[in-house]
Amino acid sequence: MHMNHLANRLRDAAGALPPGPVPLAALAEAHGGAWQASLLVLLSAPCLLPIPGVGSVLSLGLALLAAMLWLWPHEALPPRLARVHLPREGAARSLDLLARFYDRLQPMTRSRWTPLAGRTARWWLAPLTLAMAVLIFLPIPFGNLLPAVSLMLAGVALLARDGVLMLGAVGVAAGALASSATFLALGWQAGAALLGWA
Where are the transmembrane segments (predicted)? Predict the structure, then answer.
């Protein structure tokens, strides 16, 4: 889906929300079947902030999303999740923020190398999302940054069908895995030395 079209669609949906709580099904419908990609962006973005506990909580949501990417390849939300309601103000704010975010990203994205960012991408994007969720969950100093950037790039790549951007997301994920493994190895060695195990 073209980013400008999606941004306008979300902006219109934000202004047309009915009074009262809004079901998640309505928000998913506003995305025109692209709710999984937007959910990647929404759950990953707060992990960039150095707020204690945010990553631990949202990593669980990302792990659940990884399972949905693998097991639920449908445009509609799973029925149980579709019946969850959000306050109208929060729903409208989320749609408006996503619309502005996609507007800014539009000049940097375009449909290219689409097989890497199409429907079949879920077969490898699901395990990648789960791996990044685990890294976000681990208490590694500044360890949330690269995994969150990787998942945000992947979400935008899915929306824009941008295979080049998806390759960038995979590259950032590889860097996240490498840096986290290095930190954990150094931490293990330091702990072993302190305890006299080395």
Answer: 49-72, 120-138, 167-188
Q: How many CB atoms lie within 10 A of CB 87?
A: 11
> What are the distances in angstroms from CA 36 to CA 21, 30, 92, 98, 157?
21, 12, 18, 13, 12
Are 162 and 156 within 8 A, CB to CB? yes
pLDDT digits (tens, 9 = 90+) for 16-67: 877 888 877 777 777 777 788 888 888 888 888 877 778 888 888 888 888 8
The span from the CA of 44 to the CA of 150, in Å, is 9
CB proximity list for 162: less than 8 A, separation 6 or greater: 109, 110, 111, 112, 113, 117, 156
Sequence length of the chain is 198
